[in-house]
Amino acid sequence: QVQLVESGGGLVQAGGSLRLSCAASGRTLSSYAMGWFRQAPGKDRKFVGAIKWSAGVTYYPDSVKGRFSISRDNAKNTVYLQMNSLKTEDTGVYYCAAGPSDTLGIYEYWGQGTQVTVSS
Questions:
Q1: Phi, psi at residue 92, to the nearest 5°?
Q2: In the predicted model, what is the mean pLDDT of residues 78-87?
């Protein structure tokens, strides 16, 4: 089992920045990929990026490429989502997830989410 706890959400003005953290516990993550997702009210959860833990390779959809970046701290077993140039449409609950690295896109474990609100 992997437990995930997100933090760092809050209220920010458009154009601002936030860094979200996802602290993992329960097992080492060397064979996992960590994903970040956003869910706006009344909408489906959307993928905003992922990292393969061991290789450090990252993946982003076009909607956030160049604005968001994912990194990880092996010593802290924590993955980060740095969000810059935030837009109002980035508002939502952000979730981190963990899944086997060799089946990227399939996530077994999810955090409880952290709210990000971007005001105009």
A1: 160, 180
A2: 98
